[in-house]
Amino acid sequence: MQRRRVLVRIALSAAAVAVVAVAGILIPLSLAHERTAAICLSDPTSFPEAGIAGWEGEQLDNAATIMLTASSLGFGRDGQILGVMTAMGESSLRNIDYGDWETSGFTNPDGSRTTSVGLFQQQEWWGSVEQRMDPATAATLFYQRLARVPDWQNLDRSLAIHRVQINLDPAYYTRYTEDAVAVVDAMSEPC
Q: What is the mean pLDDT of the segment spanning 55-65?
């Protein structure tokens, strides 16, 4: 029953993203050439109970939301991998309501307190708390910015993410590459 509720939530979130996209405020058409992967979310068994590469349950539900959002915005496998890698590195694919300030006392370069929340640990200039805590909306915000990174498809994956997230270490996300590829590929298999 929990899986069905998650699938309905994901479908509704994807529909909301599609409505926003139709309004013309999202991703440029230059992304249309990228292959869009088929995501099999209609079958609850596509989320293995044993997990994928150590990621399971809520984490895979959040990965599916990121992938569905990416797909609805015209991002294919490469873009989906970047989104999943980012959320793995930022929040362990958990939609958390705290960030670096609370856990490590990190501040912004100007000395102000960080305001990071959600799957992507986005700060207040990304949007409202509600937007950043909604997985599909947070993913949309991430992909809007990724689309503006020149030639992101040809950059090293971690560097492309760094250009969106602007964290301290441009190579930070590299450690999540294999896991993100495994999750995206496993969840993209046809039904």
A: 94
Number of structural domains in the chain: 1
**102 contact partners, CB below 8 Å, separation of at least 6:** none
Q: Is pLDDT above 80 for 27?
A: no
Give Cα separations from 149 to 85, 114, 115, 166 (angstroms).
17, 23, 23, 12
Distance CA 54, CA 139 (A): 22
Tell whether pTM > 0.90.
no
* Residue indicated by tokens 């915000």: 141
3-state helix, strand, coil in the chain (%, to 5): 60, 5, 40
Given a contact cutoff of 8 angstroms between Cβ atoms, the answer to whether 91 and 121 are in contact is yes
Domain that holds residue 86: 2-187
